[in-house]
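User: For my dataset I need records formatted as: sequence, then structure tokens, nothing else. Please produce one.
Assistant:
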Amino acid sequence: THTHPPPPHTHTMGDDGSTFLATLRRKRQQGEAEIEALKAQLEAVERELASERARMGIPDPSEDKDAVVATACKRFNTSAKKGIEFLLSSGYFAQGGTAREVATFLLEQGQTLSKANIGEYLGENKDFNLKVLDEFVALHEFTGMEFDTALRGYLWDFRLPGESQKIDRMMEAFARRYCDCNPGQFHTADGCYILAFSTIMLNTSLHNPAVANKTGLDQFIVMNRGVDGGKDIPEESLRRLYQSIEQDPFKIPGDEAGLSITFFNPEREGWLIKEGGSSKNWKRRWVVLNNSCLYYFKNQTDETPCGIVPLENVRCEVPEKYKKKKGEYYFELLGQLDEHGVVSVIKGCKTNSKGMVVQGKHTRYLFKCEDETEAADWVRCIKAAVKRDAFYDLYSNRKAHIQQDMIFEEPED
């Protein structure tokens, strides 16, 4: 006979079932209440954060990341350190502000940031800044690129600081990166480093109006003999490099307007009486001190100076013979003394009667002021502006180091 399976078990709700459902409902209500309490706590925290951001002037990054960048750029242009600290405190960086993230920010925001401040930040001798410099250089792709093209691009992304140790670190980083991207082009990174400085000095020589005696091609080739681990850089490469710099000068960040930008916001300016070179007659000149140069004009409204005195390796003093003259106040610029006690010629230039720029042969420049306070202030400002030629010093020191290594190098069997 056919038998049917027993009917499924059916549960009849009793007292136990009702109690179970009531317990579930109570737990659900407790859970919902706890969730609401957590939401309220989160809202309170958000309000507190918003209040603190408002007090500190920090935009909410989740609402307007562009506002964070804009504020950071403004702060960076006042103080590089404060600008980066602002980004860190705003939670701008996805990974918390690694050296790579900071370097990327500096490069991507380069058109908005002060390139002088970028240079100062990258040049700092601190562990994190050094890592940022390495990452910053690594973001540049130099593979297959002509040497001067790579150098132009690198130097356009920041402005070299004035301190020689900072320049040294930044140019060494460039040399390492260029050699890594172009293996075999240089025998040593030192060779690349020296040629970079030599190129910068060539650009200054060919295109700075303060330099009358321009570096010629043959002189440039001689300058760079034996710099690459004791070997010569191919003459054809130096010839192409020279022609490139001669035809197309480096563009320096912050100097897009040319020489005229030098005369905005000068460190000191005013009318002085200047002693003539050969005739020793006195002429009234409008004098401007800026960027470690002294410029003098016939008229205050002139755009082109009639003379330029680079303040490199010079002394500024009050002449002894004029100190006791009542009612007359002077200061002078003097060339440095060499090892034999001879006063060196100052690297000044001027415009002659034909309108041509010629190199001066002065060992001193003498100026007369209206009063003692004015004379003392000019001396103070000029002394603060006097500098040594950092590029030449670094170039010379590295070249001398290579030559010394060659002298003491063990001869091959």
